[in-house]
Amino acid sequence: MAKRIRAKLVLELLAKGMTGREIRSTRHISQRSIRLVRDAAERRGLTWDDVADMPDRDVYDLLFPAQAVAREAYSEPDWELVHSELQRDGVTLKLLWEEHCDEAARDGLVTKSYNTFCRGYQAFVAARGVTNHLEHKPGQVMEVDWNGTPMWLTGPDGELTKCHLFVSTLPYSQYSYVEATLDMRQNTWLLCHVHAWDFFGGVAVRTVCDNLKTGVTSHPREGEVVLNEAYEALGAHYMTAIMPTGVRKPKQKPSVEGTCGKVATAIVARLRNRTFATLAELNAAIREMLDAFNAAPFQKREGSRREVFEEVESAYLAPLPKAPFEVCEWVRGRKVAPNFHVAFERNYYSVPHVHVGAKADLKVSDSTVEVWVGGERVATHPRFRPCERWLYRTDPSHMPPEFAHADWDDVRILRWAREIGPDTFAVVSRIFADVAIKEQGYNPALAVLNLSKRYGEAALEAACGFALERSEHPRCRFIRSVLASGAASAAGNGTDDAPGGYIRGEGYYGGGEL
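-> structure tokens emitted (514 positions)
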């Protein structure tokens, strides 16, 4: 069965002003699928507003009732004429497209959509090497880059710490955001984007960046640009098309390149004689200079960056998502244990019991751990603090009616422990007493009892007694180290408590026989 086209998503992104190429490269939807959706919607006179409240499946069924789209003949515009007409005052691509539609209708032909018409003209311009006047549209693009001029923090001993400047600019208004960071790693790069969107109070349709390693996995000369997983997730969360420039093509993001040069004077140079002890102190000073920079009047146009942004461009930005993006990392291939938990950083998080034995992926942020199985999120838990170990997060709804996945139960485990000896039984009993549900104690209890297979029951009993004297909550790791070092045997023989210690008798020192 063929995969169903995500028709509703395509319509939404088209309504936001994305081109088919941008949708293809950022959402991995083929150009043919995008064309099919766009054409079907145009034939039926449907827009995003008409289908916004409909489920995905209903939108697809509405656009493709017969699940087939016939080929249609399109009239081809005279691109030479289009290009020459654009040089005349007041003529736009929108007007030329409308005239083309009227002419095609008289000839009984089907016309290209406006987006396709624009892309066709762009291809003509690229092929002929002709140029066209660049006009920025409000709310369409946000350009981002690292500034090459660093700033510095000064420690108590005079030691200098290098800081990097993240710069973001909206080309239409030239309204800009600047932030100092201690590194240029991926998580820092992503957080700077989040802070920039918060500063602007909205999101542009496109986000243009360099081909930096923290964002782009590959950018071949021919073929599709591949973003790394985290950067692509950021773009999907904020519904913006992340568009890396061509390799070594700074002119494709001229606004932020120009801003970086201006920032070197307006911020870095003005703060050059001040010292800063903390990053927060430095960013506070940068914000003061940035506000003055944005409020300064333009030299060649009316108003200032702030005035143009507040009066015009801010209204064209898409609203911020309800929940902010959390920078996270993925941990792949964790198996769901028989006690329906997955392990992460020596702690355990529950999963619905139907997934026992499956491979799970963990999406970990500073505050949460999400468990994904088969591409679907099945559980979300608060993350344990870094200092916490061997603890469980258990959602009662994840528990089976009865724990049928384990070959062992607590009665059988305790019976085995009692057969070995009272100290072993005491250790296992304490393990079960320390867990919220008995199933959580199966693995740690069996880990202790299985030591008898390697060291013998007598040695395990002695080690458990030794461990109980030194810990209220002995576990397998401690007991194993006792067995490996022979500490329990040494203590039973009256020797020193140190692992492996040996004390010679008085006969040795008195010159007698040993």
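The chain has five domains: 7-63, 79-128, 141-316, 329-398, 410-492.
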